[in-house]
Design goal:
Elements (H helix, E strand, L loop, with lengths): L4 E7 L7 H9 L7 E5 L8 H9 L5 E4 L2 H4 L3 H14 L3 E4 L13 H38 L15 H9 L5 H7 L4 H19 L1
Parallel strand pairs: 1-2, 1-3, 3-4
């Protein structure tokens, strides 16, 4: 049986655009029916599409992912999944944005060593970025409250890609309605959240 190519794509919210990842995967030779998509946080790997895909991958198959943070944002679990794919299933994996993370090209000892080092570094960065965003938000909120800023009702959790969506809204790429829908909140709450986000960034920039 011919070895298959699988593609995996992930976004943090149902409204976030996944098209860029799909285009990159199809251009890499993955058939659309073999692209598995999850629309949820990357904090763990308990995702329906990912679990289904992993049940199908066999020895000699190739999994292609656009970037390491699309695979996940949990350092330990990324490393474990990489081990399962490459060691247990004896399949290959390619991270498109990082050519060194392509096991089809790193079969020798030195190549494998370099790939492992890069993987550990990028996995750490992916998780650290997620943690830093949450820490800065918490610190900014505390500082804003200390200055007397009233935040009202308990805050609705914002998606990991809120800063990116905010930049798109500021640039006029998306409307406030689209911004609010992507964050799963009403427009009035959205305006409050934007105000809070600006207060947080004002503190961080100091």
């Amino acid at each position: 049986m011919k070895n298959k190519r699988y593609g995996y794509a992930r976004v943090s919210t149902k409204e976030q655009n996944i098209e860029r990842q799909i285009i990159a995967l199809t251009e890499a030779g993955v058939e659309k029916q073999d692209i598995y998509i999850d629309k949820q946080s990357g904090k763990n790997f308990e995702r329906p599409a990912y679990v289904e895909m992993m049940s199908l991958i066999q020895e000699g198959d190739l999994l292609i992912v656009k970037s390491i943070d699309r695979l996940g944002r949990n350092y330990q679990e990324i490393m474990e999944q990489w081990r399962i794919i490459t060691k247990e299933k004896r399949a290959d994996i390619c991270i498109q944005d990082m050519p060194l993370l392509d096991t089809t090209k790193t079969k020798d000892l030195l190549g494998t060593f370099i790939s492992d080092v890069v993987l550990q570094l990028l996995s750490f960065v992916a998780e650290n970025e997620r943690d830093n965003i949450r820490q800065r938000q918490a610190e900014g909120i505390a500082a804003a409250k200390a200055r007397g800023v009233q935040f009202g009702k308990p805050m609705i959790p914002i998606p990991d890609n809120f800063p990116e969506l905010y930049k798109q809204w500021q640039a006029g790429a998306i409307s406030i309605k689209e911004f609010a829908k992507a964050c799963n909140m009403g427009r009035s709450t959205m305006y409050n959240r934007i105000k809070e986000y600006r207060e947080i960034n004002c503190y961080i920039a100091k």
